[in-house]
Amino acid sequence: MQGIDYSKQTTPDAYRCCNCDIDGCKLWRESSTFSPDLLCAKCAAENQLASIADIDTKGTRSSDLIPGSRTDQIGGYVPAVPDEEGIGYWSYGAIPEVAYKWWQQLPTALSEAA
Would you say residue 14 has pLDDT above 70? Predict the structure, then answer.
């Protein structure tokens, strides 16, 4: 994966859903994995048997754990935010604000690639 410029709304070449092959959108990864499979919102929801009926443009949905709150997690999947070198992904609790905003501004794809 090549490096990333968070000021641009472009995604690295390898930043694509491993299930439906869609790219250019928000992706999620399994928490605590070194070399994760990336999934789009639809595929992550299917994998985790989670509802994304109310997912918004920032990638948040109603929390399954805390009624009345919103989360950017889909089951055990967290936002897949590439590090600036394009070597790996930020740890969920350590994502820099500029990188998280980059992820939030990507489209939230809800259908498979054509």
Answer: yes
Cβ contact 106:24 at 8 Å: yes
Report CA torsion sign: 86, 19, 63, 60.
positive
User: 89: how many CB neighbours lie within 10 A of its CB?
Assistant: 23
Q: What are the Cα distances from residue 106, in Å, to 11, 33, 64, 99?
A: 9, 22, 23, 11
- CB-based contacts of 102: which residues, under 8 Å, 6+ apart? 4, 6, 9, 81
pLDDT in tens, 36-57: 899 999 999 999 999 999 999 9
Place of tokens 């950017």: 72
Domain extent listing, the chain: 28-105
Render pLDDT for 57-93 as a digit per residue (tens, 0 to 9): 999 999 988 999 999 999 999 999 999 887 889 999 9
Task: With beta carbons less than 8 A apart as the criterion, state whether 72 and 78 touch.
Answer: yes
Task: Provide the 10 A C-beta neighbour count for residue 98.
Answer: 10
